[in-house]
Structures are given as structure tokens and as C-alpha cells.
Amino acid sequence: MSGHQITAKPQPRVNEVSEPFWTGVNEGRIRLQRCLNESCGRVIFYPRVCCPFCHGSELEWTDAAGDGKVISHTTIHRAHHDGFNGELPYVFAAVELAEGVIFYGQLRGAPTDGTSLVGSKVRAEFSEHGPDRKIVVFRPA
């Protein structure tokens, strides 16, 4: 055994509300909720039990295209958890998906020198994150 120990990354808390989202991610899909109220119809992220806009309780799951644009980002030089130390430095971005929701994740393959990436088009990918768990990451499109 080497002196290098790999630290497990923190895992998401999956519950009955978020389980369809996480199952989709493990299958390579971003699943979002859509409000079925005729006067609303908004797309929702993160998973909820009712629409945060009209408070309607009828929601359906729909697949997102996976395309978006960077609306904000930062370069991480010091990880918040030891499990990410091997990836430093990396870009962490707020991405507006084509469906209109804001999603946060690593932007892999992006410059870490402080170059502005705001407005850049990105595409979702799915990355191994732990035993039987994937997460959404992005790459420049």
C-alpha cells in the first residue's frame, strides 16, 4: 500500500424527491421538473414537491438538452474538500441551461488563468463521482 490515500468525495443526499434526478444523471440524462399548471408551465431545478412559482403540486419530469451558457465562474485553487485536491485548479461555473434553469458544476477543459468565460457555450457531461454515482460537469461547446 502506498503512502498516498485517496479521499472519497462528498456524495449527494438522495431522497424520494430528488431520486428521479439522480437516477437520470447516472443514466447520462439531466432530468428537470416542469409545472403542469396551464398558466405556469415553468421548468424547475432543483427537485421539489411543488412549483416555486405558482405553488402547483402537479409536476412532470422532462429531459434537458444539456446545452447552456456560462453566467458566472471562478477558478478553484484550494478545494473545500480533500477529495477534490487532485483536480486543482479547476473552474466552477454557474450555467444557464437552454431550459432556463441555473445549474452549477465544474467546467472541465476551461482555462484556469482567470480568462472570462461569461457567455461561453457549454455542454453537459457525466462524470464518475463515487461508487455507483455520477455527477453533471460541463465542457466548452
UniProtKB/TrEMBL annotation:
Residues 61-126 form the ChsH2 C-terminal OB-fold domain. It holds the Pfam family zf-ChsH2. Coiled coil: none annotated. Residues 22-60 form the ChsH2 rubredoxin-like zinc ribbon domain. InterPro entries: ChsH2_C, ChsH2_Znr, NA-bd_OB-fold, Thioester_dehydratase-like. This is Zn-ribbon domain-containing OB-fold protein. It comes from Parapusillimonas granuli.
